[in-house]
Amino acid sequence: MRFGVIGAGRIGRLHARNLAGAIDGASLHVVMDASEDAARAAAYGGARVTTSVTEVMADDQVDAVLIASPTPLHAEQVEAAARAGKAIFCEKPIALDLGATEAAMSVVEQAGVPFQIGFNRRFDPGYAALAREVGAGAIGSVELFRSQSSDPEPPSYDYAVQSGGIYVDSAIHDIDSARFIAGDIKRVSALGRVFANQQLVEMGDVDTSVLTLEFESGAIGVIMNSRRTVHGYDLRVEVHGEKGKLVTEDERATKLWRYGKDGIRGDYYYYFIERFFDAYRIEVQSFVSDVAAGRPPSPGPRDAVESLRVAVAATRSLTTGRPVEVASVT
Amino acid sequence: MRFGVIGAGRIGRLHARNLAGAIDGASLHVVMDASEDAARAAAYGGARVTTSVTEVMADDQVDAVLIASPTPLHAEQVEAAARAGKAIFCEKPIALDLGATEAAMSVVEQAGVPFQIGFNRRFDPGYAALAREVGAGAIGSVELFRSQSSDPEPPSYDYAVQSGGIYVDSAIHDIDSARFIAGDIKRVSALGRVFANQQLVEMGDVDTSVLTLEFESGAIGVIMNSRRTVHGYDLRVEVHGEKGKLVTEDERATKLWRYGKDGIRGDYYYYFIERFFDAYRIEVQSFVSDVAAGRPPSPGPRDAVESLRVAVAATRSLTTGRPVEVASVT
Amino acid sequence: MRFGVIGAGRIGRLHARNLAGAIDGASLHVVMDASEDAARAAAYGGARVTTSVTEVMADDQVDAVLIASPTPLHAEQVEAAARAGKAIFCEKPIALDLGATEAAMSVVEQAGVPFQIGFNRRFDPGYAALAREVGAGAIGSVELFRSQSSDPEPPSYDYAVQSGGIYVDSAIHDIDSARFIAGDIKRVSALGRVFANQQLVEMGDVDTSVLTLEFESGAIGVIMNSRRTVHGYDLRVEVHGEKGKLVTEDERATKLWRYGKDGIRGDYYYYFIERFFDAYRIEVQSFVSDVAAGRPPSPGPRDAVESLRVAVAATRSLTTGRPVEVASVT
Amino acid sequence: MRFGVIGAGRIGRLHARNLAGAIDGASLHVVMDASEDAARAAAYGGARVTTSVTEVMADDQVDAVLIASPTPLHAEQVEAAARAGKAIFCEKPIALDLGATEAAMSVVEQAGVPFQIGFNRRFDPGYAALAREVGAGAIGSVELFRSQSSDPEPPSYDYAVQSGGIYVDSAIHDIDSARFIAGDIKRVSALGRVFANQQLVEMGDVDTSVLTLEFESGAIGVIMNSRRTVHGYDLRVEVHGEKGKLVTEDERATKLWRYGKDGIRGDYYYYFIERFFDAYRIEVQSFVSDVAAGRPPSPGPRDAVESLRVAVAATRSLTTGRPVEVASVT
Q: Where are the domains of chain B?
């Protein structure tokens, strides 16, 4: 499967490199970026370079596109790729609003092309094993769910103002993990605070949140987020069921422990690129294998829409101070 | 300080034994229980035995009483002890309702006797160190709080029906820890489910809960509880602040790890007596040391009242499905 | 079982306190110390006080003695107690030399009194569980054994010079654990260095050692010791067998983890009194229960002799630079 | 830097894939294997395929060779590559005997080509951080070293008989780590047993070993090996110094913990390919970066020779039952 990579920023470059050599059944055919220099820097293994999306879409040698461009371009590029008959892997989100997302997914489904959205945590070995064991009934039915994600630094004003807010931008990864592990979510209730960046107040955004979840299954849960975590990128998922509990432990950057006068000390990951380095590769491998086998890739269009719907419901709950039925969000 | 122990059940006996030999500055003078056999079984180190509370209160040799009788007797025994001028250590709760608790605390305060309530977690070395470091500013101001407590087995019908419900009976330990670590709580919102014992439904009680907390300080948090945990007694507190995070890790019953075909495996505590074995001793030592030094013991009357007030607010929120202002609960 | 405690130093006082209230079936009858003040400070629960060992031995009310006096007095006090028909719990070692130890044990055996030596690690919940599982065949036959013990500070000159050296004084705990877990030891080979206290050189002693072990069973192993460990008291046992591995993990003083700019950080125990606080109680409880049940307490006379024999063999190997057959040491 | 990969077995294929896309500054030019099918299966990113080593050496487009062929071919291929002026990355060992290894390294040094040997553990993030911190003085001078490596399964007869024995084949990784972390080794003493595969007895080989180390610096240490470990691939390094201790913890395959009736349970790595997946990439990246910068790659010829010399000394000690001076082995 020959890939065109659209967008050669940090994530696009990482995907390009993986496609050039680390993904079985894939090759890197062309890299597109508005900056030719950026495209060239990502053209691993002798891939072609272009500044034109249209050219990629028109290229018969391109079987699949991996979209890692700025978010505002995602929806139209997804639609263009679908119309061009390409298999599509798109970084999250398709769009910040639900309507544009649903519209793009409609085009994908009408075109009948394979589509996967880049919810990378599903492919982290720990998250994946946890979901697999829940699915296999290892803890019986899920009763309590908890996901925590803490980012090392608050978003800048410029980033935050166009990001869609904490739920659409960041907590959507926890939301998607919750759906992946414990199924669809029926109702959410948000509680937020601004501690780290007071500029968020005027946007109606927060940097610290407790979001309670009621799942369709009857299970309940909570997502906790902070966007100022001095020790780095801190994630933890705990799932309690009738027969046991599963926990993906705090990952550490090295397995080195230092013992000294101050006790015992270990390292921590700084941020998501390092923490999910393997997951970025594994998710694309999964996409390639699924498409090659004629299976619909996952997470697919429905996940792109439904995880966003929960994030929008959470945003609405934050604004209104009341629980929001997810199904009421359209 | 010569102690009379009132009530020689499992907890009373443990306290009696500690008082007989493991608490500096204390001795066990007399053990009272309605069953003389029970009293005798707890009369460590040659302590006297009686079936009469009145006799204990009238005994001039008794400087302090440790009340570990059934909950419905606590309030009147606390009042009797206060009137008799004894220093008082009382197992939680004073009473299931706020009025009776406040009334008993008034008697204690009018009598001017030292009083401590048995919120034992405050004296667990991990919880104590966590609170001490928060108090010393190690993580700056608290932003996010989380306490989880999972009991190994759901309460029986007979126990549950007279227990006051999950918040007053069980989550009150998490509530008190939250207050101990992050200060007073302003508003709570409860979400509950019955998974393990359907008999709870008719009582309006639940066995699984997510309780969100808004602290007076502005911090937010959550308490999660389950009353069916197959691996045993499972507690965890995480406190995230502007400068770092503190976690009391899941305790294990032994530090033995077993490596075998199924991976690596460790033991877990079954329940609170084993888990807080040391804390039961340390809390009474703290009481004795405080009284000897003329310091008011802690947690004291205000904690007995205020932690209960939050638990009652949580119960009300569970019933109404809406957030409840703690101050509105009287 | 009424106890006389001989020697009211730090360990004696801890035992006295436990006997006064924390040991089922035991009471503290009398405390003896050459310093009446020291004896009085350990006379918990109203125990009598004396400065005369003879008086303790002659006291018909004393059923058992717990000997925690200075090491040079152990052998003669053990013999006196045996002749007086007392059950005997004696802190390790009986004596620094094998002949005196064997002589004292002969007197004990001729007298037919119960005897236990204070190898406290056998009663640490982790060590005990490990030995129990090895005994139950959980890992099949033992193939590789490893014990590490690191003390926080090197011994002073005055202490070291009369201590018998690193093997007899300190590594004997690892040796006894090795015997407890994997059976008798056939041959040892010692390699040592002086890093922390150069005064040890003239005594022929070391502060850092690697001691290889060949067990009678065919298993092999190693004991590693350091007497300068800045992070505190650091112990670890690993036992590898044909069906798996058992490890007693590094214990930490609190289960608190601190996350901050420098990573994640935990506390460590300072020294053996804190680390084996529970074991000091459990070992005496075991002694009392065994005697009450008419069982010979364990570790008993043979362990006192045989663990010392291995330590003496190790000392000889250090001196000669060659492996030493344990059986050749008499 | 255009690479020719020599040998397309499991490790060669992994390297080929990394070179095709995961290594900055490198590309995969040609893959050689005696089996054209095997070569083709490793020809990632459109690399050429050949069955002729000579052709690779003669190819001017090949800047560097990565030798992952069967061990008996290493020395001659290293020499051929050196004479052809290629930069050389060679899997360990160069040869099983010291003479052939030294001869090949002479050719490399005379040719002046960059050379690196595949001691992959040096590039594991945990091992690398440990060595870096020791080098930076974080724990002062090293006093005690310990490395443990346990393989999941004993070698087959056919493998073992041509492997050079446990020290040359397997423990050499621990030996090289010891040299990497604590410097050169002066004397070794081996103690071995056969537990898992009795066929090893006739070869004079063992499957379980304790090897004591005396470093040139004065530090002492031990390497422990087992070749039958039911839980998988189990490695641990502990380095104790005057100012603290560093430990690379047992790695687990996932960070998932399962809590259930049997306690808490985690996964383990099966073997080195999974455990050192990242290290295989990082070591080649380091080679490429060093060569590009004109730095001699490391570990280089001296490490290839000296780590083998220690392994041969250990083998000799096992045979003779006596300590062996490393310098005496030629």
A: 2-113, 121-328
